[in-house]
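User: Modeling request: complex.
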Amino acid sequence: MANAYYEKIARVNLTTGEITVEALDVEVAKKYIGGRGLGTKIAYDEGCATSDPLGEGNKLIYITGPLTGAAAPSSGRYMVVTKSPLTGMIACSNSGGKWGAKLKYAGWDAIIVEGMSETWKYLNIVDDKIELLDADEYLGMFSEELDDKLKEKHGKEASVLSIGIAGEKQVLMAAIMNDKDRAAGRSGVGAVMGSKKLKGIVVKATRTNPNDVIASEEALKAANKEVMVNIRENGLTGGGLRALGTASLVNVINSVGSLPTKNWQESYYEKAEDVSGEALAEKFLVKASACHRCPIACGRVVKVDDKVVGGPEYEPLWAYGANMGNSDLAAINKANMLCNEYGLDAISVPCTIAAAMELYEKGAIKEEECAGVPLVWGSTEALIEWTKRIGNPETELDWLMSSGSARLCEHYGMPEVSMSVKKQEMPAYDARGVQGIGITYATSNRGGCHVRGYTIAPEVVGLPVQLDRTVTNEKAFWAKTFQDLTAVIDSMGLCLFTSFALGAPEYTKLINAACGTEYTPEEVLLLGERIYNIERLFNKAAGMKPEDDRLPKRLLEEPVKEGPSKGMTSKLNVTLPEYYKERGWVDAFPTDETLERLGLGEYIGR
Amino acid sequence: MVEVRLFAGLRKGRQKVYQMESASVKTVKDIMDALDIEVKEVNILLINGFHQKPETEVKDGDVVSLFPAVGGG
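Assistant: Request completed. Predicted assembly structure:
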């Protein structure tokens, strides 16, 4: 019976060059939905947690969800699951564009890449045929040029996923790019691909939809029609994101005094308006853009000099702007483009440069180490040049910077300057003035991250309800619920932004229609909880300690100096025990009872 | 004086910032009426960086920020 899976996984061994086809275990897939959930289950069971992230034992799992490419809103998502070389824990990076949908249309639920090649290769997938080809001629190319070259060779209907120079050099903040400017950006997944000498994956598909495996096209059509009403009627998904993109948040978050400034030394940026979504739209926006099957269209297309390229999201606008004390929007656009060209995480890279600027200000990094480009707050030359250097490191400081802020600051004896959790840089919301997001950061299985439980929605944006951002009450419950629901959405293959308009009941209808299941919304949330817990088990096996669920000291001990959140600190000491109680965890890990309750009994004692 | 800051689509046909005599506006709703902004157009309403409601009273020195549906992540 059709169940929204093609029931087919390709396993590519780069050591031997062997490519084999395996049947998907449908019962296991249903238990973990697909995508992020199933990918983590496979990664755990195949021993990635205890592997060297950049060694032969680690694997890269490119995986779709049951709804990827299907008739549902914003369904163009795929995920890359592996062990992160940046955090040493689970990595699951998620991207849009077209590539994921095409992989699904080609008839694959997942591609598992293992081993290491001696020479550079790329994969060429045409429906059910997969071949390994030489990639030497594509080394050193920027992602846009590489995309063009591979399309010249394989046809313009192909979709290209690749690593840039940063991935080739195994930079710990290297992203995997697809469709030129979309990124599975976080946790250094590009470095893992580089360690295996896999330059890219080209995919072409004859199918244009996955309807041949959808359990009930009628039911999915009806469910889609119903949820699309919510998407259209919601101000954010029905027009707000198309108008200004995620960049609209710069002024919102600054107005509540939670825009981290100069590496989180301050939380209010006087010049935020200059680097806001409004300014971007007025001065640089060419048009909005959308991923596959997306009615929201949050993407930006902007002008950089004489080029028309993908524009910055809220995160790089903040990280290259307020967080570096820089108000030059043209420089941010350029730096963002460089991140895409080199294949870099446009959050961790600028945050590492900001940390380096604080180290420079404090005298830890000396001018003579900077090879002619001092790390001065607000220097546009510094933010552009250091992005290039991180993308293609040569000097000792280049390499240190390219390993992320935690290793950099540790090297200079000032670990507290790294604004990271589990060695991954935190994003653009100061957790001192917004209590719930601090729980998300501290307990995120992939380290500092906002899209593992986006409590900013209720705490600042008022969706689905408006909470008081300054209090701790019930925030543990909200963080857990958002984390579990997010795990569901990611695993389905839909974009998280649909959740501004949709909740568990709507996602349940979509899953049931596509997969032929009969879940209740409560059961679907339980699937999400199971996924969050198996990620935690992966981290435990990888050596995570309870003290890794933490926030940087600055957020706990240094009150906000100025602005609307003046005087506030994160109250994680209150919320973290409440959160563990909500989860049924003791000392950061699930109890045996919790594992039993979640159907994870097979993992007890491991 | 009360400073009123408008953002995103609310700026269309209006200024970014207004200074209003506190004597002439008692609540945020009065400000919105004066600027011809409907309640349903405003998704985020802040006074001095804290979420409030249209009926909340304003006082001299307050900064009122009004946003339509914006967000992302």
